[in-house]
User: What shape does this take?
Amino acid sequence: MGIELVDGAATYEVTHPSGTVFVLKHWTVGMQEEVDRECLVQDGKGKVSYNVSRERQLKIALALADWRGVTQGGAPASCAPETKAKLPVGVILWLVREIDERAGLRMADEEKKTSN
Assistant: This one.
């Protein structure tokens, strides 16, 4: 085994429990840097906070490339910024978890169970 370098142009698919297929771009250092720039907020008094809501928005905007099985008004919906924003909160949270796990930013549930 080893470590495979990230190809920012490559995509992979994940299937939501609903059966919907999401096509995601591999998370890159550049994407993470953009999220950090926009989400780390200094208040001018030496305190730093992190905007988690904005982080979720950016991860979906940057990583979600396409989908199959998403509809609006009964018709297939295009994977555009305005439709991405209409995804149910639970789906967005699921996608962010998938992105984070694939990028190594979060330990997969299976790994948590075996790492004790």
Remarks:
- The chain has a mean pLDDT of 90.
